[in-house]
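Try this one yourself first.
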């Protein structure tokens, strides 16, 4: 089994955010809505990251791009039950 590395590291994204780019989240979700994996991204990295997610995703999953505030709010809601 060949393991592909992600196109950008967290350090790459942090460097871009520090330089002024907006932080967004890329998430793969199963058909039932369960999060499979996520990655931090910016406007300049998202096209490459999305392509990577699309080519490595599970067959019935979907890819979404959301702002950080939306992602954090959703996670907090799930913790509250």
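Now uncover the answer:
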């Amino acid at each position: 089994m060949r393991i592909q590395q992600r196109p950008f590291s967290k350090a790459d994204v942090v460097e871009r955010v520090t330089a002024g780019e907006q932080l967004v989240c890329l998430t793969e979700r199963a058909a039932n809505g369960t999060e499979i994996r996520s990655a931090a991204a910016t406007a300049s990295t998202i096209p490459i990251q999305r392509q990577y997610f699309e080519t490595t995703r599970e067959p019935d999953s979907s890819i979404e791009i959301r702002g950080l505030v939306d992602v954090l709010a959703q996670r907090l809601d799930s913790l509250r039950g």
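Discussion: The CA atoms of residues 29 and 35 lie 5 Å apart. Helices lie at 10-18, 46-56, 68-80.
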